[in-house]
Amino acid sequence: MSAEPAEELDLACYNASYVEQLLQKYLDDRNDVPENWRDYFDRQAAENGIAASELGSKGPSFQPRSIFRESGGGDSGPVGGTTGNVKLQKTQYRSDQLVHAYRSRGHYNAKLDPLKLNKQVRTPLSLESFGLSRSDLDERVYYTNGDQIEQIPLRDLVKRLEDLYCSHIGYQFTHIDELEVQQWIIDRIERQSHIKELSNGVQKQILQRLTEATVFEEFVRKKYVGAKTFSLFGSEMLIPMLDLLIDRAASNHVREVVLGMPHRGRLNVLTNIIGQPPRELFAQFNDVDFHQFIGGGDVKYHLGNSVDKMTSSGNEVHLSLSFNPSHLEFINTVVLGRLRAKQDRTGDMNRRKGMAVLIHGDAAFIGEGIVQETLNLSQLDGYKVGGTVHVIVNNQIGFTTSVDDSRSTRYCTDIARMLQIPIFHVNGDDPEAVADVVSMAMDFRETFQRDVIIDLVCYRRLGHNEADEPSFTQPLMYKAIDKQPPIRDSYLERLINQKRITVEEANKMTDDYQEFLKGEYDIAQEMKERSLRRPEGVWEEFDGGLEPSSDDADPDHDPADECPETRISVERSGEILRMLATVPEDFHRNRKLTRIADQRKEMANGERLLDWAAAEALAFATLSMEGHRVRLSGQDCQRGTFNQRHSVLHDINNGQEHSIFSNLSTKQAPVEIVNSPLSEAGVLGFDYGYSLDYPNALVAWEAQFGDFSNAAQVIIDQFMASAEDKWRRLSGLVLLLPHGYEGQGPEHSSARLERFLWLAAEDNIQVAIPTTPAQYFHVLRRQMKRSWKKPLILFTPKSLLRHPAAVSSLEELATNKFERIIKDTRENPETTSRVIMCSGKVYYDLAHYREEHHRHDVAIIRVEQPYPLKNQTVQAVLDQYQDGVPLYWVQEEPDNMGVWPYWKLRYGHRMFERFPLSVIARETSSSPATGSKAAHEYEQQQLLERAFNDT
User: Fold this and answer.
1) Which of 186, 288, 347, 697: disulfide with 629, CB 3.0–4.6 Å?
2) 100-113: average pLDDT
3) What is the DSSP letter of 322?
4) Residue 555 has pLDDT above 50, yes or no
5) DSSP class of residue 249?
6) pLDDT of residue 85
């Protein structure tokens, strides 16, 4: 009830925190508080002779925190206190402490474990812990419930708090700093005296989904004895939970839901949430057409699918379950990137029409570092998606590892306390508590556009897989599980007792679904092959497979696709360069950046050759003006690690930002250059996911130094290099990896070129090492202009960014294309005594040595794209040299790294049976480079000497 005017002084005494909130509302807008409180604050201001806006800030004015007095007589400030009130004040004060304790620590005492085995220490919430006793239970105390204040017996308050905070839901939210958010959560919890009673329709919906989840697991287990399915038994509540989540999202105008999950329960989710026909799954079990999957494909519990689905509430939503390797949590940021791309592509810049749902295992959520990277992205402008729903299927075990051995925290969710978001723990054997949590979680996400965590505490009835024996390592847990009735049975019994459903209705649910599965199973037995989907939707116009120009490609495929138009006229390039060098009149840039802009104008006028950064800026700008969105993210990539890019300028007077790519054209697509957090795996996963759902965008990730890609190796190996072969998913993602030996030590020299070449097969990726700005310009534009989509790994330079010889003319942008091999241009090739082939920066060192020592008998050929590279292209370059001329592969890397191991495997020691082939490289090493600058220079000089003089 609302406070009556006569009660206002007592209420102020007993509820200081509440009065503080009312005072703040009053100061913001006096009409926002109840009339009696408005009059009270007006009087306080008048009595103290100050303006109302100064309440709580001057002299003897109203101070909510100083109201409470334990003793005294007569006037004790704006609220009088007498000795006779002291006991009542103490009781009220201690009851307030008790309320706060339940709100902040009640979740420790909640009944969350269906097995009742939880050994966690309970937090004392007894009356005695707060200086109260049973004799105080009949005292009436004030209790703030939202903006309502009630006076109730202490015993009723304790019971209410027990029911709210220590039942089957544990609310964890007091780590949130913002009082507004805390109060929103408190209001949602405490304005209901118990969990809301669900409608009979929702109860039957939950039972229907539980029935489908249970019957599906039983059916598959019987039909495919011993097969791995990573059963959902014990966690079946996941299916109705997801159903409720998606229903609620669709009711909130969400039209796109992207899900990511590990293998446990995936087959059930694919069938009962995504809606994949069970016949397709059964055909996978039958494996009738294995010949088309030799060397490819993936196990069924790693696969994904997508579908348009009508929800129970009558709204259509597109569901996508992402494919996932066994590296459990690495799908997280891939999902977020996919959703962000969908939002950007459809213009959903408010991030309201899409939702990401990430399903985790408890051991993986606390154990995998990629989870922290994922959470950290949630509120960053370049990565936010409007809030992700995290569902932890908490089996209270990791494979065979118990909780005591898998984490140092009380909860597996404690990592999520880094964010200003609530964590809802819920007993997975109480479907209606789960439904209540779903409702609250979805409303929180909708209101604050932040992540939310649902910890579904359940158990794993079977072993890690169906052939595993869990009682070897958890005998006590599995004794309890053996006695635990299936959740579907216990919930059915509850509904029957409530007379919400009959046994006959429930049996019909079971029989109907069993009959449906049997029909699908019978169809699968007649299937001779599984359909392999071609790219569809936004990918319909793009192709994968072998490169059109490769040696083994389909001869009927149009090879013109290999050479799309990437040229830009000199006049157009000059015009764009001038725009890139121009800032608004009221923008004040650093004088050094003014010099760079002046140099760009000289390039535009043909007075200076293009450097690397100018060529990149032209590539980005021209693609944007042709309608292709550009997204580049990475650590410090706006400025550029090597102080070269300067795509986002900062006003030296006020810090205001200006993108050089803004205002190029009224019809241009966005150019988004995003400084990422200090994260590799998470950010690369995000950008890879983005590339999956935005094929018409140039999406690039830049490593600060090339070796930083080491920290993202799972994304490179399990997703980029093999996704097409495993999951038939294409990507045009670009990796920019600075690479080159400048004496900066092992980590800052090599981007581990050899690793990418070892991953290269079946034209799955492109590996290029451009050596000129024009080559870089054309390869970036080629990536967007052809319909053949594969990840592009670009080894970019460091010292060449400002090397006087690593420059290009505007004419090269206007007349050239990307060349996989740049041939030697010396005259009289018949006089050649040796041929050097190389890639990257070492070319300039070799060319300089050749000129300095007048070695015009040596040819130097640059291999700009080691993969894919057809033999005909290499032969065409070598045809001008006589048989038997020695050919040397020269590289800066040790001879067990770089291109050479791949080159030697491909060509042996005699190329095309014409040229003896050997290597000039640093000695075999376990480390990429020396840490000594002097040693580096010595090694480099020795390398050059050998390149020209070894016999």
Assistant:
1) 697
2) 95
3) P
4) no
5) H
6) 61
For residue 320, list its beta bridge partners: 258, 306
Measured over all CA atoms, what is the biggest interatomic distance in the chain, rounded to whole angstroms? 114
More confident residue, 474 or 750: 750
**Among 424-433, 572-581, 824-833, where is mean pLDDT lowest?**
824-833
Report whether 52 contacts 30 (CB < 8 A). Answer: yes
Helix (H) or strand (E) holding 880: none
CB contact at 8 A, 859 and 835 = yes
With residue 359 as reference, give the H or E element that holds it.
strand 354-361
What gap in Å lies between CA 435 and CA 212, rounded to an integer? Answer: 17
Sign for the CA dihedral angle at 849, 851, 855, 859 comes to positive
The confidence score (pLDDT) of residue 629 equals: 98
Percent of the chain with pLDDT over 70: 89
Containing 568, the helix (H) or strand (E) segment is: none
CA angle 464, 466, 471 (to 5 degrees): 60
CA-wise closest residue to 795 among 692, 687, 650, 898: 898
Helix axes 278-286, 200-223, angle to 10 degrees: 20
Give the separation between CA 75 and CA 587, rounded to whole angstroms: 61
Give the pTM: 0.90
Residue 559 pLDDT more than 50? no
Give the pLDDT mean for 6-35. Answer: 62
* pLDDT attached to residue 292: 67
One-letter identity of residue 539:
W
pLDDT band at 530 (very low <50, low <70, confident <90, very high): low
CB 332 within 8 A of CB 416: no
Instruction: Extract the tokens encoding 205.
Output: 């919906």
Burial 930-950, CB ≥16 within 10 A → b, else e:
beeeeebeebbeebbeebbee
Q: Residue 671, SS3?
A: strand
Residue 75 binned pLDDT confidence (cut-offs 50, 70, 90): very low
Q: What gap in Å lies between CA 173 and CA 184, rounded to an integer?
A: 11
β-partners of residue 700 are: 632, 734
- Phi-psi group of 297: left, alpha or beta (phi > 0 → left; psi -120 to 50 → alpha; rest → beta): left
C-alpha dihedral (104, 105, 108, 109), degrees to nearest 10: -120
Length of the chain: 951
Contact call for residues 254 and 292 (beta carbons, < 8 A): no
- CA-nearest of 535, 553, 541 to 729 is 535
**Which residue, 239, 533, 521, is CA-closest to 359?**
239
Neighbours of 117 (CB within 10 A): 14
Beta bridge partner(s), residue 316: 310
Distances (CA, A) of 896 to 755, 899, 909: 11, 9, 16
**Residue 324, C-beta contacts closer than 8 angstroms, at least 6 positions apart:** 260, 261, 262, 263, 266, 302, 304, 330, 331
Would you say the C-alpha torsion 750, 754, 756, 757 has a positive or negative sign? positive
CA dihedral over 839, 842, 848, 853, signed as positive or negative? negative
The H or E element containing residue 153 is strand 148-153
Q: What is the DSSP string of 696-734?
A: TSEEEEE-SSGGGGGGGHHIIIIIITTHHHHH------E
| Residue 667, number of CB atoms within 10 A of its CB | 9
Structure tokens at 401: 């590892």
